Amino acid sequence: MAYIDFLSPLHKATKRDYLARVNDPEYPKAKAAALAKKWDFDYWDGDRRICYGGYRYMPGRWEPVARAMIEHYGLKAGDKILDIGCGKGFQLAELKNAEPGLEVYGLDISSYALEHAHESVAANLRQGTAAELPWPDNYFDFVFSITTLHNLHCYDLDKALREMERVGKGGKYLCVESYRNEEEKANLLYWQVTCESFYTPDEWLWWFRTTGYTGDYSFIYFE
How far apart are the first and last CA of the chain? Predict the structure, then answer.
């Protein structure tokens, strides 16, 4: 298990006005969160003050992450890959673009996201919860989850980490939101709309040890 940061360059490229997010007169934080947690149009393609404001495929945006994963984990043609919380499948599409022989699979709770998934991977995406993965033990050569597991309550987070470990026989990687000080904690609370598990890095490491998760990890901070 190691700390490997694939995501910071993309995360830090976005400028955030935390106070505007929480105090917006039309979509105050509670209203935005209630809409976002339906995981429907508003979350993906609705107003930017709710969440993504249009989650569209931009060729090459996720390519550096895909290539870094392929290189680091030695992924090759024929390997089975799972993305837990795949959304519209854009990261899986970039993985296939970078290594066409990969067998990619994804799971997401949002039927809307899957209905609007990237056409190159849509056939292998399933609707479901990270707490109950519909695949047998040791099925995947690489399992990853990007900014998803912090959206689970503790009882489902426990199950999801164990499930991620169960279905993966090779490398594993996850990225979750976290905070290191009170400023980052406040910013996270102001910005997030779906997070249910608010933990420091040490608390996340406790979760990994408790559930037997042996994969790699990194954290997103709201500085």
Answer: 25
User: What CA–CA distance (Å, rounded) separates 161 from 204?
Assistant: 11
pLDDT digits (tens, 9 = 90+) for 208-222: 999 999 999 999 999
Angle between helices 63-73 and 90-98 (to 10 degrees): 60
d(CA 22, CA 191): 7
Mapped onto helix, strand or coil, the DSSP state of residue 31 is helix
What's residue 9's pLDDT? 80
Quote the tokens at residue 144: 């990853």
For the chain, give every domain's residue range: 8-220
DSSP β-bridge partners for residue 216 = 173
> What is the CATH topology of the domain spanning 8-220?
Rossmann fold (3.40.50)
Q: Given strand 80-84, what is the order of strands in its sheet?
A: 125-127, 103-108, 80-84, 140-146, 168-177, 216-220
77, two tokens: 């043609």
Q: How confident is the model at residue 8 (pLDDT cuts 50, 70, 90)?
A: confident
DSSP annotation string for 109-167:
S-HHHHHT--TTTGGGEEE--TTS-SS-TT-EEEEEEES-GGGS-HHHHHHHHHHHHHH
